[in-house]
Design a protein that fits this description.
alpha+beta, four-stranded mixed beta sheet, three-stranded antiparallel beta sheet, 9 helices, disordered N terminus, disordered C terminus
Length: 308
């Protein structure tokens, strides 16, 4: 436990062996990825004017080509953004013994401190399913409003009904705070490795360090930090809604998978697998069927439309 939340990183001069990535997965000397210049920055304050159609077209093009864009003047106050960020910085600066009381490996807890989910202790994360009193409560509420607004813009761009993603599809909201201590040798480690998120949308508030990267055209590119902006990333569930697919087909597809997830547990269990090479499988977030049967379930298939 002490190894997960101690402040050893402030004085350590070499990377502990448990944190070193396998040689073929290390970033090596290519640490500073070039910044991607193609990510559009959308000013949401201009959506009520004559530029609305153009802005929505920019969003849809970014979704198709990159799966990512940034938004400014989004309605979440700079004061609230700074206050929330400072709150979490204060938390991670606490003595190890004070943070230790919040450590848990129980994924069902609404507030917990935990370490990397990728079996490499490269970062500490704070997960909250509900607001941490007033500041975080206000923050999560405002971010939820923004995410609903973004989803409605995507609905408009797709030509489908507004509020299409309301209800079960967007019911769950999580706030995850990643903390990366200073590293004596970044060439040996990674924070969160290459991955995609299982939700509809990920809204990310960066600090002033260009740590977020996207994979495009066979190489990793940095996402430029913009003060008080949100990075909007298209996640797995939304990726299935492709531009040009008819509303009828989308409805039929969503209904099909909703019907699958409503099946009895013993019927779904036949499809459960931890083998990532399978073309079709059912799996859960923590790869533990018995423990997590009521939590996140996902289908992986060789066809794009089955990533739900």
């Amino acid at each position: 436990m002490s190894a997960l939340v101690s402040s050893w990183s402030r004085t350590v001069h070499s990377v502990p062996e448990d944190y070193v990535f396998p040689e073929n997965k290390r970033p090596g000397s290519d640490i500073a990825a070039p910044v991607c210049k193609d990510i559009p920055v959308i000013d949401l304050s201009q959506l009520d004017g004559l530029d609305r159609v153009e802005k929505i077209q920019q969003i849809m093009k970014a979704n198709r080509d990159l799966g990512i864009f940034q938004v400014i003047n989004h309605g979440v106050s700079e004061e609230l953004l700074d206050e929330t960020m400072n709150l979490f910085k204060e938390f991670f600066s606490m003595p190890a013994e004070d943070k230790a009381m919040h450590y848990s490996e129980d994924g069902n807890k609404g507030f917990r401190l935990y370490t990397s989910i990728f079996n490499t202790k490269t970062y500490l994360s704070l997960l909250l399913n509900y607001g941490c009193r007033e500041v975080v409560g206000s923050y999560t509420g405002e971010v939820r409003k923004l995410s609903s607004r973004i989803l409605d813009l995507i609905c408009e761009g797709l030509g489908i009904g507004m509020r299409y993603f309301e209800g079960e599809l967007s019911k769950l909201q999580e706030l995850v705070v990643h903390h990366y201590p200073p590293c004596p040798d970044p060439s040996l480690v990674l924070g969160v490795g290459g991955h995609s998120d299982p939700h509809l949308l990920t809204l990310l508030q960066q600090e002033d360090i260009c740590g977020l990267q996207i994979y495009k055209d066979g190489r990793w590119l940095g996402v430029e930090p913009i003060p008080h902006a949100f990075v909007i990333m298209i996640s797995d569930q939304l990726e299935v809604i492709n531009h040009g697919v008819s509303e009828e087909l989308m409805d039929d597809t969503m209904s099909l998978f909703k019907e699958f997830f409503d099946m009895a547990v013993e019927d779904k269990a036949a499809y459960y697998s931890e083998d990532m090479t399978k073309s079709f499988r059912l799996y859960t977030g923590d790869m533990n069927y018995l423990k997590d049967q009521v939590n996140y379930w996902r289908i992986q298939s060789s066809t794009t439309l089955a990533t739900l």
